[in-house]
Amino acid sequence: MTIWTDFGFIGSPYDTEPIPPTDQGDSLLVGRDREINEIVSRLESSTRHPTVEGPFGAGKTSLISVACYRLERAFKEGNARVNPLIPLRGEPIELNPEITIEDFQRKLFYRVAEAFKIYGDGLEATGRRVPRQKDIERWLMDPVFHTRSGGFSTPIVGISAGKGRTPSSSIAYSEFGFPRAMKDALESCFPSRAHGGFIAVVDNLELMRTSLKVRALLDVMRDNVLAQKGVRWILCGAQGVIRSAAATPRLMDRLAQPVDVEPISDDLMSEVIGRRIDAYKLRADPVTPVGPNGFWYLYDVVNRNLRTALGFADEFSFYLHRGYGSSTRKSDDLGLLEAWLSDSADGYHRAAEEWLGERDWRVFDILTHHGGTCRPCDDYQDFDYASAESLRAPIKSLREANLLTYEPDELNKRRKVASITATGWLVAYARAGYAPTLAS
């Protein structure tokens, strides 16, 4: 038995994982219809691939998940026969600085083969040409393929004559066999953009570390991966990375301007947590460790970061269960949540004091009252410094104390942006006398 069954839930209503592509996931998403409609509209009506940007923890992955789920549901229900858009199964694809275009294509085409296996009958019912199911299954199950002396053969497409068996991971097969078969299959099934395609998602582009690396890889992808018929892409990344990476003439005709994802508005927070409580409850009257009022308070303290607020609500639930079991009276006590949050903030504050001096704290306090973000090269006078150079030392100290991030500005690589972390906002809460510190 888990603590959640004690409280009357099937699992944590404060789960920080992205919302799943299911009916329940669709019901949990609040306040994102505008963004979803724009993504879907671009997929249906434009030859350029939609992109999504937003701050960490704003829910970008969740809204893409739900958008794809709605398109898949429309196809299954027979409402998207002319230009079906079907999401590939599995987690979003992530790029990294070490990946090659060949490795990326292999991952993509393997998922495409799985999608043809799953949706082939439905696509064939619309009059489309699809690979034979038994051939796809044979490739997915068998690590070898048949070669012939005058060329090669795959389970889907065969060329030339003479027999042999070669591992499917061989260079010849990687370069000419399976990828070519998948390209032919995609172009036969989806001969133009107007015929729809499979949806592939590339998430967390910020993992490429700088937009220059993102741009370099996207530039390589432009004429093959991003131009592949039958595959519609959604590219997603942190604030600024798409605009910076796609700001070239070569990429602008492939990638649309980003759909901006802002933090969910304050007036929807009660609905956000209310839907989660309803979705996860085992009984009619569960004990809710953090209800709508308490959750809004957490959301305010951590500067409107939904993922961080959910994480703190989850931690408080363990504290409540450890100290008070499944007491309804204690779960309704907002004062207990505030006391726990204050103790947690004090712990982080004391740890930071081991690293920081008066000069560092002064910079930190000013930054919290400026909304938590600054560009030291441009904003040093706001901190009463004579130059950006003199501001670097306290910024470095605050970064080492894990109160700030200090990363290249995706819109201008010659500048860096200092931003308060989730830990930093909790410390700011302690320094403000246990009150939210977000500037009005």
Overall residue-averaged pLDDT value = 84
| C-alpha end-to-end distance | 44 Å
Report the total helices.
19
In CATH terms, what is the architecture of the domain at 32-126 and 190-263? 3-Layer(aba) Sandwich
Strand content: 5-15%
Radius of gyration: 26 Å
CATH class category name of the domain at 32-126 and 190-263: Alpha Beta
Structural class: alpha/beta
User: Which residues sit in consecutive blocks of at least 5 with pLDDT less than 50?
Assistant: 143-175
Overall geometry comes to globular
| Tally of DSSP β-strands | 12
Question: Level of helix content?
Answer: 40-55%
Biggest sheet layout:
6 strands, parallel
CATH superfamily of the domain at 32-126 and 190-263: P-loop containing nucleotide triphosphate hydrolases
Structure characterization notes:
This protein is an alpha/beta fold and 440 residues long. Among the domains are: 32-126 and 190-263, 3-Layer(aba) Sandwich (Rossmann fold); 129-178, no CATH class; 352-431, Arc Repressor Mutant, subunit A (Orthogonal Bundle), CATH 1.10.10.10. Helices cover 49% and strands 12% of the residues. The chain is built from 19 helices and twelve strands. The protein has helices spanning 3-7, 23-28, 33-45, 60-76, 101-124, 133-141, 171-189, 211-221, 241-245, 249-252, 269-280, 292-301, 306-324, 328-331, 334-353, 358-369, 376-379, 388-400, 422-431, and strands at 51-54, 85-87, 93-94, 144-148, 151-152, 164-167, 197-203, 231-238, 259-260, 373-374, 404-409, 412-420. The strands form three sheets. Strands 1, 2, 3, 7, 8 and 9 form a six-stranded parallel sheet that branches. Helix 5 (101-124) packs antiparallel against helix 6, helix 5 runs parallel beside helix 7 and helix 16 packs across helix 18. The longest helix has 24 residues, at 101-124. The radius of gyration is 26 Å and the shape is globular. The model is unreliable at 143-175 (pLDDT under 50).
